Amino acid sequence: MNLNIVVIGLSVTSSWGNGHATTYRALLSALARRGHSVTFLERDVPWYREHRDLTDPAGWSVKLYQSLQDLPRLFGAAIRDADLVMVGSYVPDGIAIADWVTSHARGVTAFYDIDTPVTLAQLEHGLDYLSPAMIPRFDLYLSFSGGPALAMIEDLYGSPLARVLYCSADLELYQPRETPERWTLGYLGTYSADRQPQLDRFLIEPARGLADNDFVVAGAQYPDAITWPANVERIAHLAPRQHAEFFSAQRFTLNVTRADMRALGFSPSVRLFEAAACGTPVLSDHWPGLETIFVPNSEILVVSTPQDVTSILQEMPEDTRRGIAERASRRVRRDHTPDHRARQLEDYYREALARRARPAKTTATEAPVELKLGLS
User: Which residues sit opposite 42 in a β-bridge?
Assistant: First the structure.
């Protein structure tokens, strides 16, 4: 089965300030290796144009467009004739694009929600990239959250088929590197106001109490007003090709979870898989469903207080630390690679295709967005 796949997503060319790029790159490369033809369509916007760290993907293509009206003009035939068209979360003018794609594409259509907890928390209050009326019009809803979120998407919002498609670790990029240990504990992630209290609790506070140890926080968009302890190094941005060396230079790495993700559960961060693939043991706050991804105290260390963090950093024997890292790395290779995700997507495509022979899906009752915004 060789599919012609078109993806309209937030960004694949720049990982600056967003976690979408690495997820898309890993999945699309795996699909290309499996013989599928893949094209990614990305709105050309200044903040990603100025921070591009992918220019020549191997085996698949990226095409940039300038405006909403460019999509039908430049890519109308490609989207009409594709076997599978995926529209991602946070795409500019996403509602109008979703309306047009689900009306125009002849193949299977899917919404790929890389932000499921945020989407479900805010959907009734209004989002720029998805409306409740659009959900039943997609053949398939691919969710970054598993567990009860899937039933919610089907039962409350009318999706004909909701399936989990987690992120993964690209093993070509994420593997242990021979590099000197620089930091006792580190963190990689873009600033988020609702995640910052967890970062303060599990990294900043332990750093203040362990003045002889070095810590690091890497990621974009942190406010200048934050006061970092002297032993916490700040790195403004790391391109994906630098992540493996960054993780390998840490004795432990920290995962902290946004409030919506903790509340919904079953929403693993890509950093969990990437750090584990690099052989770095992960300390994480707790969230429902964590145990379905990694086994606590065997493959991941769950912390609930700053004292838990300090105790692990000071007291854990080296053989125990290495054992946790090795078991987590094996788990990633067994269950959480891009090839696993590509195979899952193929299965979901077949399932959605089979369902198309059943009675017609529900038609949204709202006025077509394309008429409002001039997309034709």
Answer: 9, 64
**CB-based contact 250:181 (threshold 8 Å):** yes
User: Which one, of 246, 256, 250, 247, lies nearest residue 196 by Cα?
Assistant: 256
Residues of the chain with pLDDT > 90, as a percent, come to: 88
Encoded tokens for 94: 């996403």
SS3 39: strand
- Residue that wins the pLDDT comparison between 237 and 339: 339
Give one DSSP letter per residue of 317-354, joined into a string: -HHHHHHHHHHHHHHHHHH-SHHHHHHHHHHHHHHHHH
**How high is the pLDDT of residue 230?**
98
- CATH no. for 183-335: 3.40.50.2000
Higher-confidence residue of 317 and 51: namely 317
User: Dihedral angle at the C-alpha atoms of 284, 287, 293, 296, nearest 10 degrees?
Assistant: 60
Band the pLDDT of 177: cuts 50, 70, 90: very high
Integer CA distances (angstroms), 223 to 135, 226, 234, in order: 35, 6, 12
Q: What's the confidence (pLDDT) of residue 374? A: 52
Q: Which of 200-209, 230-239, 319-328, 342-351 has the lowest mean pLDDT?
A: 230-239
In single-letter form, the type of residue at position 137 comes to R
* Both tokens assigned to 113: 């929600």
CATH for 4-168+338-373 (3.30.70.580, 3.40.50.2000, 3.10.20.880, 3.30.450.40): 3.40.50.2000
Cβ atoms 329, 174 nearer than 8 A: no
